[in-house]
Amino acid sequence: RHLPEINRMSVRQDTEHEGPQHYLNLEDMTQPPISKEEAHDFNRVRQQFSPQNQAAQQQQFKQCPLSAERLAKFTNVFQVTTQLYDRLVGLLKQAASAPWLPPASQAQLGGQITETVGALSHYAADLNQPLHTTRHSTWQTALAKPNEQGSHHFMEVTLFTKSENRKLGDNLTKLHYQPTYLPPLGLKQRLLQQIQNAYLQVFNLVQGDAQARSSPSTYFASLKQAWQPIATQQTVASACTVSDILHSAYEEAGRPDLSQL
Question: Which residue of 99, 105, 111, 207 has the smallest Cβ count within 10 Å?
Answer without folding.
Answer: 99
